[in-house]
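Q: Got a minute? One more chain.
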Amino acid sequence: MKIRRFVAGDIREAMRQVREALGPDAVILETQRVEGGIELAAAIDYPEPAPMPAAAAAPAVPPPAAATGGGGLPAPVTALADEREFRRLREEVHSLRELLESQLSRLAWNDNVRRNAAATAAMRNLSRLGVTPDVVRDVVGRLGTGLGERSVWSAPLKALEQSIPFAEDDLIAAGGVFAVVGPTGVGKTTTIAKLAARYALTGALSDIALVTTDTFRIGARDQLETFGEILGTPVYQAGDSARLAEVLRMLAGRRLVLIDTTGMGQRDVRLARQLSWLAGADPRVKVLLALPAPTQTAALQEIVDAFMVSRPSACILTKTDEATSLGGAISALIRSRLPLAYVTNGQRVPEDLHFARPRQTWLVKSALELMSRQDQMNEDDMAEQFAEVHVDACA
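A: Always. Here it is, folded:
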């Protein structure tokens, strides 16, 4: 094991020196404060010995008596025991490294708290909203000198709100051809009914047509036809790209055409094919991605990544009334830079569909109200996520 000592002005600089000198597998053995900064003792394991090459063919030689009798062990058995002991020691060293790195992260986090309590409080508050660590770092990092003890809540919330991309216009107000895509169960059909009813409040029902491409789900057409009967608008079916192109040509005189698509999971192998023929049917088609607010953060990002192949113009955040946290949805929107056009928060048609731009403050406020139901992150969690954030940039 190779051991070296490093002295630096702070913990981040010392860790940087360790990584550059010994690599990412280095083990932190001890830390102590010294005059002018901090001292680290770090070590790197020796690489695991390579297997011994097979011996060249040679006349058989009887093993020495000590290796076969008198209490001795054959050489292969001894080598196997040595290898097991080496692996055991290596695992212990790795466990020790993980423990020390965790303690070091906690030390760095405590140092951040001491040097800039306002920035670390802002990180903690945004994390409690369910916002992902990368977005938290970006939002707090951009606050700079605008963050103080009196604004550890208001400034980060305002910055978070300003980070969310919103569609500037009520997209369906001017008409057009829109296809709503998204995974199964996101509420696409109900959302289409809400969009049609919203347009009907100011436009003529005769200008609206509904189209379904969903030939997989049992009753999918029936549900849309029920909405069509209620609204007094016709419903057409198109099972492939050629039929969809034909239907859209036939409906060229309609001001608003809304297309309900097949719901598929983001990992469904058929998804890319379905989305590609949708885009190729007619260049007028604008895609809106329905994003389910109650979905877990990681799955939300998967949905966005998978459906980006359809090049959505904007997003509709659905079922916000069923969500236990909105931080994951907000994070997915910020990461993807996909404009949020509409928000839905109930089953009423069209009352529970809202143009998102005027409700941007409402969205963050709703996330704040849901926060009280979430478990607060402990200091170990905060240290793991934000130990290496340079809070001086926020001072």
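A: The first strand starts at residue 2 and ends at 8.
Q: Perfect, thanks.
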